[in-house]
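From the shared-data thread, chain only:
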Amino acid sequence: MSIEVANESGIGVDELALISVARFALDRMDIHPQAELSLLLVDVEAMTELHIQWMDEPGPTDVMSFPMDELDTARTPDPEAPGPALLGDVVLCPAVAAEQAEQAGHALDDELHLLTVHGVLHLLGYDHVEPDEEREMFRLQNELLDAWRELAPSARTVSEG
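Structure, as tokens:
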């Protein structure tokens, strides 16, 4: 699985952990092992522009997802099914995440792991507009994060993917 990270936020983050949690979530969701994902970390100004442009909402947000290919091509295929897909981009704003982490009483890394999984699930078609959708998405998000965190730190390395 190819996961690229571009950190344009000006804030140092553990990029390898973001790749690891994203890869773990995609593996657990049976996404083709050769699928491609991009993680982009941006500053408040860039996230504000994206949020206004794509969601028509003011101010920055913590995470946005921009799907690329059809989801059907990304699922683990039958021998006859199409190959891997370009899943899309997950855009994170570490400055907003830092504020949320402080309010929640946990570390920035924990918030970014959560937001990465959240963004990946959006790419896979999950949403939280309706209460039932929200319960399902957040349940799955928590299950994935808990399972990833239970792994020994050495098992969470990127080289295993």
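The mean pLDDT is 89.
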